[in-house]
Design brief:
The chain is of the alpha/beta class. The chain is 46% helix and 13% strand. Helix 4 runs antiparallel to helix 12. The structure holds 5-phosphoarabinonic acid. It catalyses: alpha-D-glucose 6-phosphate = beta-D-fructose 6-phosphate.
Length: 485
């Protein structure tokens, strides 16, 4: 016998809830230094009264802090969880048609038009770096899935193009504005390759963009791509439950009706629960008190589950882009344990006490690997499983950090499926919107992001930016040339 052998019984797979389960929040360890729980602080009581009325403000949708221009940006709360079945059926049908004729699916988008999509697909199908290595049968009819347009790295882009060359490809291009440069460049490249490769290229490309305006909408109408609409009242980072997220999930074979049912369930819970059991409000209030009274400036979004790294990355966008205005806001830093414990845990444990930590804890993954420890340095773990060891270490990090003065809380996911993911997003979008409102910030605008785009446009020669480009050149001349070592 030659070749690597996986001993029988080494890998264990057990069916776990594929469709249900409720997400919970464990906030027992959200303590202040000295061991007092946050709920014992007078500031907590005050903020929990305020958060209720801010939720009423969110529901009413009239306050200027909810608007981008004239549009109230609460479609993710008011409309998305109540999306009509017929609309979902249409997305499922177009996705199934595309899936039936492709081997590889390329999703193009950036920011909110990328992160939720990738996070959900990886949480449910498993990390794509491994999923894409599986054969067609192991993938169960799901195409390999790649993301482009979320950066402009030529090496990565060239490699993806070479990997998919000669194969049956489908493309989903997502941009609410229709003009964001990174996805526009990626789409220009893919469009040319699709037109060279397929006579039916138009039917292999699906656009998700504004219903009426923007360059992508114009192009899509001209060429005749199928198109789904990003609602006016849904901003990028709140769009995972809109067609922005839904089309890609449907191509990946994920049950988008259960996903929306999960979002709806969490939305109803947020609307009706008292604060003591209201996940979104609790999180908003605890973050606010941590920021204003406990010196917290950074929230680590930590997980020991590889397939949840993308959700932590989605949280990294949602919080800071929603709150980071007027010199305020909590920075969110995703951490994957135990890998990152060997890099950052020292700082979290003993550095400046300005960090809180939110864990994404998975109860059942359904897959386990037995540790054959006999005769090795981990003999004491012989016959135990990886999930046993992983849990011990991730809980160990949580408890040690808490003992070291880090307020921690945990989202508990009973299983990874469309229903639990839909809940998690809806809770977190509510929590962050309320958290930003507590800081008197509009969660739905991102004026700071426009600033770097203005500079980048001028540097990359966008028409209309000529005089600003000259100004930037003059500023560069003023820099001291002796300050390059
Ligand atoms: O949250 C946001 O609004 C942003 O991250 C956007 O999603 C991102 O800039 C992409 O924008 P667009 O979909 O218009 O290309």
């Amino acid at each position: 016998m030659s070749g690597f052998q996986v001993s029988s019984g080494l890998i264990r797979r057990e069916p776990v809830g594929n469709t249900g389960g409720k997400v919970r929040l464990d906030y027992r360890r959200f303590g202040v230094v000295g061991g007092k729980h946050v709920t014992a602080l007078p500031e907590y009581n005050m903020a929990s009264r305020t958060v209720k009325s801010l939720h009423d403000v969110l529901m009413a949708g009239t306050d200027s802090l909810l608007k981008d221009g004239t549009v109230t940006m609460t479609g993710w709360k008011i409309d998305s969880p109540y999306r009509a079945e017929a609309e979902l059926d249409q997305i499922i049908q177009v996705a199934a048609e595309l899936r039936s004729k492709i081997d590889d699916f390329i999703s193009i988008g950036i920011g909110g038009s990328f992160l939720g999509n990738k996070a959900t697909i990886e949480a449910i199908l498993g990390s794509l770096e491994l999923f894409n290595l599986l054969g067609p049968e192991q993938r169960g009819g799901i195409p390999r899935i790649f993301f482009l347009g979320n950066h402009m790295d030529p090496g990565y882009t060239a490699r993806v193009l070479e990997i998919i060359a000669g194969r049956r490809v489908g493309v989903n291009v997502i941009s609410k504005s229709g003009g964001t440069v990174e996805p526009a460049i990626a789409f220009a490249i893919l469009k040319e390759c699709m037109e060279n490769g397929f006579t039916d290229h138009a039917s292999r490309i699906v656009a998700v963009t504004d219903k009426a305006k923007g360059a992508l909408k114009k192009l899509s109408d001209e060429i005749g791509y199928a198109a789904f609409e990003v609602p006016d009242n849904v901003g990028g980072r709140y769009s995972v439950t809109s067609p922005v997220g839904l089309f890609g999930l449907a191509v990946a074979g994920i049950d988008i009706k259960r996903f929306i049912a999960g979002a709806r369930f969490a939305e109803e819970e947020t609307r009706k629960r008292p604060i003591v059991s209201n996940i979104a409000m609790l999180r908003a209030v605890m973050r606010y008190v941590a920021y204003t009274k406990m010196g917290i400036k950074i929230e680590v979004a930590a997980t020991g589950t590889y397939d949840l790294k993308g959700v932590a990355a989605w949280m990294q966008q949602l919080g800071p882009e929603s709150e980071g205005k007027d010199d305020k806001g909590i920075w969110i830093s995703p951490e994957f344990y135990t890998q990152d414990a060997h890099a950052n845990s020292q700082m979290i444990q003993m550095g400046e006490r300005n960090i809180m930590e939110t864990f994404l804890m998975l109860e059942e993954s359904g897959t386990d690997v037995v540790i054959p420890g006999r005769g090795t340095p981990v003999e004491y773990l012989d016959g135990r499983t990886l999930s046993f060891a992983n849990r011990a270490f991730v809980e160990g990090l949580r408890d040690a950090h808490y003992a070291g003065g880090v307020p921690t809380m945990s989202y508990i996911l009973p299983a990874l499926n469309a229903f639990t993911l839909g809940q998690l997003y809806q809770y977190e979008m509510n929590a962050i919107a309320l958290s930003a409102l507590l800081l008197e910030q509009n969660p739905f605008i991102q004026p700071g992001v426009q600033q770097y785009k203005r500079v980048a446009d001028a540097k990359s020669g966008k028409p209309g930016t000529e005089s600003y480009a000259l100004e930037l050149g003059r500023d560069e001349q003023k820099l001291n040339p002796n300050l390059i070592a």
